[in-house]
Each structure stands twice: as C-alpha cells, then as structure tokens.
C-alpha cells in the first residue's frame, strides 16, 4: 500500500512518504502480502508495539520490537492570585478554596500530559503590611514532569486566607523569566488566574493600580514567544473585565467566545471548565518516535481505535503526517485525530511489512 504525498526530510512534498534519510520509497503491490493474517499491535506500559520486518524478498520472518511514541509535553507555569481578596466568598466557599480545588482538578486530569510549575503573586512568604504585600520574586515550584504532588505540597490548602495585594505584572514577568530558562523547542505557556485588577505598580513596594499589565503580557508573547491564557475568577459584573479582556487578547490565546477574550471562572464548575479548555488548547499533537519507521509507506496510525490515513500536511484534513525536517522521527496528528488525542484517546502505531 502506498500513501500519497508525504513530507520529506527537507520539508518538501513528494508523491509518497519518505524513508528516514529523505529518499522516497517505491509503492508496494499488496498482492505480494502473505496469506497469513497481519501481525497485531499491542501496548506495553503505554507504548505502541511496532511490528517491523523484512521485505518480501528476504528469507527471514518479520521481526518485532517496541517503540514508545511520546507526546511533547508543554512547559506550563501556573501563576496564581494570592491576594487578600481571595478570602471573599464564591458560592459556599472562599475564592481561594475554589481555586485550590480547580488546581487539584487540573493536576488529577493532566499531570502526565504537561510539565507543570507554580508560583503565587505576591510571594508565599509575604504578610499583609505596607512594606512587602506587593513583593513577587519567587517561582515557588519549578516546571518539571509529573510535578503535581510537589505543587500541592507547596500550595496553601483550601482553608488558607491569602494575605497580599495583586502584583500581576511582577507575577507574569517572573513566570516568563523562568520559562525562558527551559528548552525553547518545547511549547511554553502561562496560565494566569486572578480575581481582580492589578494593584501594585512597577515599583513592587508601592500599592498602585497598574493598568499596563496587558502591555507586559503582550511583550512576553510577541518578543519571547510565550503565550498567556488569562482566567478571570469571579469577574462577572466587576469593574476590571475590560482590563481582563485586554490582557487575554494581548496574551495571544484569547477565549474564542464571542463576548470576551479572557476565560471566565465565575464558580467551581466554570473555573474547572476554563482550566480544561486551556489545557486542551496547549497540549500538542506532535509525538516523538525513538527511531524512524523502516518503511514509511506501510506505517499506520490509529487514535481511539480509528485508523487514520497519511496526509501531506495538517492543512489537508484529518489524519497524520511526518513533521518536516525530523527525518521521520516525529509525527503530527491532524484534525479530528488531534482533537481525540487531546481529549485523552489512546494512540497506536504499527509498521506493517511484506512477509516473505
């Protein structure tokens, strides 16, 4: 079976998938396939088994070996409002308790798919007084894989009363500086959650309404290529919605809803839904292969039990494609295959062979 139009190692498109060295492989006559049933694919520890073997003119049978396709886990900085207004009620809980439960929900659902880190603004060790209630200098839990337990160990519990002001500018700047220390080839993002307008200006020792946070978020996106997803907690009916919309638009990842650019979290359910929405948006559909498939023309991919065809690029419909300039060691899921994968569907890949 020959798949039409695959990416070459140089990013150009040919009539067929290419080998790992960029050479197009010849089409195969499926009538040469053995009458025996095709080898089956199994999974071990999350990795798909690729059944890879000799060509039809070889003497030996197909040889199987395991390869684990690994999704690229984005580096995500949680930047959480630790101001005293988080003590206010939201339903039958405090805003802080609602936020804590939403963070726990995020970790429970996506810790394995994201490299997470967390910081509070202002810093965790501040107190509510005139000298330090705006200070934000620490990224409390550095971004790392499978980091949920460490984040919850540092994050004050749901019964805690945050004491500080709202130094949003300093929060996103500290987060961006931390993300810049990480591999730029891996997607990076800030999840900013706040329940009020910024009340600390550029001088962290001064309580002052800061109307320029959107400009800072915009610079982080346009100059450093780090988007910010802005989640407004209990913002409905407040006076700072306009600035939240400006921040959401400047961050490069606005809510696609027609009436606002930030992601609303006006109660427990909607805050968790906002987290789910931004997580699904940030998860990548690019998967690394330990080695290139020996015969790309016979390489097959399925998501949630549905087999998808090769497409030259993701602009041409549902399916999968090799990522250009990776020597066939990365694949990208496209369209509905990507949507299903982001929602947690299983992924399998198989290298068929012509068994002699």
Automatic annotation (TrEMBL):
CDD domains: vWFA. InterPro entries: VWF_A, vWFA_dom_sf. Residues 75-278 form the VWFA domain. Residues 1-53 are annotated as: Disordered. Residues 1-30 have a biased composition (Low complexity). Coiled coil: none annotated. This is VWA domain-containing protein. The lineage of its organism: Bacteria, Pseudomonadati, Myxococcota, Polyangia, Nannocystales.
């Amino acid at each position: 079976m020959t798949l039409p139009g695959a990416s070459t190692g140089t990013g150009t498109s040919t009539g067929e998938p290419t080998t790992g060295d960029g050479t197009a492989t010849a089409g195969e006559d499926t009538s040469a396939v053995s009458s025996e049933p095709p080898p089956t694919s199994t999974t071990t520890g999350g990795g798909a088994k690729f059944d890879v073997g000799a060509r039809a003119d070889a003497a030996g049978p197909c040889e199987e070996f395991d390869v684990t396709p690994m999704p690229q886990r984005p580096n995500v900085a949680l930047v959480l409002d630790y101001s005293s207004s988080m003590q206010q009620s939201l339903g039958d809980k405090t805003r802080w308790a609602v936020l804590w439960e939403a963070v726990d929900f995020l970790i429970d659902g996506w810790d394995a798919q994201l490299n997470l880190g967390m910081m509070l603004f202002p810093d965790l060790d501040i107190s509510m007084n005139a000298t330090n209630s705006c200070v934000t200098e620490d990224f409390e839990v550095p971004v790392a894989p499978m980091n949920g337990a460490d984040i919850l160990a540092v994050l004050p519990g749901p019964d805690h009363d945050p004491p500080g002001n709202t130094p949003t500018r300093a929060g996103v700047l500290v987060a961006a500086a931390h993300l810049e220390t990480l591999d730029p080839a891996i997607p990076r993002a800030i999840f900013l959650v706040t329940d009020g307008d910024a009340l600390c200006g550029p001088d962290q020792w001064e309580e002052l309404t800061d109307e320029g946070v959107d400009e800072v978020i915009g610079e982080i996106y346009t100059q450093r290529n780090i988007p910010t997803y802005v989640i407004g907690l209990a913002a409905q009916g407040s006076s700072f919605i306009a600035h939240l919309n400006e921040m959401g638009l400047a961050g490069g990842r606005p809510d696609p809803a027609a009436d606002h650019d930030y992601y609303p979290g006006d109660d427990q359910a909607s805050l968790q839904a906002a987290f789910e929405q931004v997580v699904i948006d940030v998860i990548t559909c690019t998967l690394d292969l330990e080695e290139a498939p020996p015969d790309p023309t016979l390489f097959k991919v399925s998501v949630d039990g549905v087999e998808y065809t090769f497409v030259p690029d993701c602009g041409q419909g549902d399916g999968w494609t090799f990522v250009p300039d990776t020597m066939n060691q990365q694949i990208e899921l496209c369209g509905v295959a990507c949507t299903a994968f982001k929602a947690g569907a299983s992924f399998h890949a198989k290298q068929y062979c012509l068994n002699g």
